[in-house]
Write a structure and sequence with these properties.
By secondary structure, this protein is of the alpha/beta class. It has two domains: about 1-130 and about 210-245 and about 275-455, Glycosidases (TIM Barrel, Alpha-Beta Barrel); about 135-210 and about 250-275, Oligo-1,6-glucosidase, domain 2. Helix content is about 30%, strand content about 10%. Strand 7 and strand 8 form a beta hairpin. Helix 1 packs parallel to helix 10 (about 350-360), helix 1 (about 1-25) packs parallel to helix 12 (about 390-400) and helix 6 (about 215-230) packs parallel to helix 7 (about 280-300). The longest helix has 22 residues, at about 1-25. The chain is globular and about 65 Å long.
Length: about 475
């Protein structure tokens, strides 16, 4: 077993040396002068899933005070910045990714004062706080959506609405297209009060915002500025590929073609999402967010504010988010190759190819990043094997660029065994008892194991 680990580690070191020799040393420019790297380029980032990270008051739910109490742990393991999964006010249908108020803290997690104290304590320890930014949708309980239903300006077109197609049998119109949501079934939901369908590419209670409306674009930029004023160091942007869908032609949306990947017509993978994901306008939107962050630094000073982008798109599309020679994009379009390509059976050669896949596609002027796990994926130790977790963590830290670790992966936590009847994840619940294991995200969201007691010391944990 030791020889297996050593083989992989040595192979990676050799690959790193080869990459350095063939790509050019990233610390030296063409004139031989040392280049001073920005803080984020060599940082260790740590994702916290607040709901199950640390419960400070015994209610079974993690909170901001709990995070604050464990900042020293982050400092001790060399973390420079931590990004928090959503802490905004939410009915928690999708556990914070359904936001009812983008400007308020969810009461389960504490108060705005608690957040401000967290920022202050983190600053003392030299740890930057990064927030999750969820631009694609809100909760249906958000006041914006409630006013949009009633066609109250300027909210009438805040969301993607459509009257639907004529029903040849009479009665309610048919959905505008065959588009499918990520959690199974149609992406269109009829609203009786407005007498129209709204688009929701995730849960029914997560209506899609309309980014073809400039008022929405400015509203979401205001959200970014608000939290920058609170002292955050940047944002991890959720579900970026979904932000734009193709513009309607003659008022109609086109159907998407079958993908051939599955025969289950309710599953999102049944369709090729050529009209609902990775539209060119999405890249430009990321460029605008980066400009906002750069402008904020120019005006207010301080360190660079960073933009981290979640996208499971093809490598060609992911690389577009870095930017161009004239326009800056995200500093870190997330590199999910270790998630998408690796598993327990991966050999040293496979690991090498995973690393090369990023370097071979990344423009030379940019900084690589490495992500092995997160709250949406099975844990690293479960995917790669408990016997390889130390090796995988070493690889993560050895590779040049920024490293992103999901809380618990640093101690080798494995997936929780969650039965269907105990599932909380809407993706699992909608999949049903026969298929939920394929879609559930609950196993990676169990309580952080601060000790070895039942439920890691949490009384009645709520995922």
């Amino acid at each position: 077993m030791f020889q297996s680990k050593l083989c992989i580690l040595l192979h990676i070191v050799l690959v790193f040396i080869l990459i350095t020799l063939t790509k050019g040393c990233p610390d030296v420019n063409t004139k031989g002068k040392t280049i001073e790297k920005d803080w984020w380029e060599t940082s260790s980032f740590y994702q916290i899933y607040p709901r199950s990270f640390k419960d400070s008051n015994g209610d079974g739910i993690g909170d901001l005070k709990g995070i604050k109490s464990k900042l020293q742990h982050l400092k001790d393991i060399g973390v420079n910045a931590t990004w928090l999964s959503p802490i905004y006010k939410s009915p928690m249908v999708d556990f914070g990714y359904d936001i009812s108020d983008f400007y308020e803290i969810n009461p389960d997690y504490g108060t705005m004062k608690d957040f401000e104290e967290l920022i202050e304590e983190a600053k003392k320890l030299g740890i930057k706080i990064i927030l999750d930014f969820v631009p694609n949708h809100s909760s249906d309980e958000n006041i914006w959506f409630q006013k949009s239903i009633k066609r109250i300006e300027p909210y009438t077109d805040y969301y993607v609405w459509h009257k639907g197609k004529p029903n040849p049998d009479g009665g309610r119109p048919l959905p505008p297209s065959n588009w499918l949501q990520a959690f199974r079934g149609s992406a269109w939901e009829w609203n009786e009060e407005r007498q129209e369908y709204y688009l929701h590419q995730f849960d029914i209670k997560q209506p899609d915002l309309n980014y073809r409306n400039p008022v929405v674009v400015e509203q979401m930029k205001h959200v970014l500025r608000y939290w920058l004023n609170k002292g955050v160091a940047g944002f991890r942007v959720d579900a970026v590929p979904w932000c734009f869908e193709v513009a309607p032609k003659n008022g109609e949306y086109p159907d998407e073609p079958p993908s051939g990947f599955t025969q289950d017509k309710e599953e999102a993978a049944y369709l090729s999402h050529i009209y609902t994901q990775d539209q060119p306008e999405t890249v430009d939107m990321v460029f605008q967010w980066r400009q906002l962050l750069d402008d904020y630094q120019r005006i207010h000073g301080g360190d660079t504010r960073v933009l981290m982008i979640e996208t499971y798109s093809s490598l060609d599309n992911v690389m577009k988010f870095y930017g161009t020679r004239s326009i800056k994009g995200a500093q870190m379009p997330f590199n999910f190759q270790f998630i998408l390509q690796g598993n327990k059976d991966s050999s040293a050669k496979d690991i090498t190819n995973i690393i090369k896949s990023w370097f071979n596609n990344m423009p030379g002027a940019y900084t690589p990043n490495w992500v092995m796990g997160n709250h949406d994926q099975r844990r690293v130790a479960s995917r790669y094997g408990v016997d390889k977790i130390d090796t995988m963590n070493m690889i993560l830290m050895i590779l040049p660029g920024a490293a992103i670790t999901y809380n618990g992966d640093e101690i080798g936590m494995i997936d929780g065994d969650i039965k269907f009847e105990d599932s909380k994840d809407p993706a699992a619940i909608r999949a049903g008892p026969e298929k939920y294991q394929k879609f559930t995200r609950d196993p990676a969201r169990t309580p952080m194991q601060w000790d070895d007691s039942t439920s890691a010391g949490v009384k009645d944990p709520i995922l």
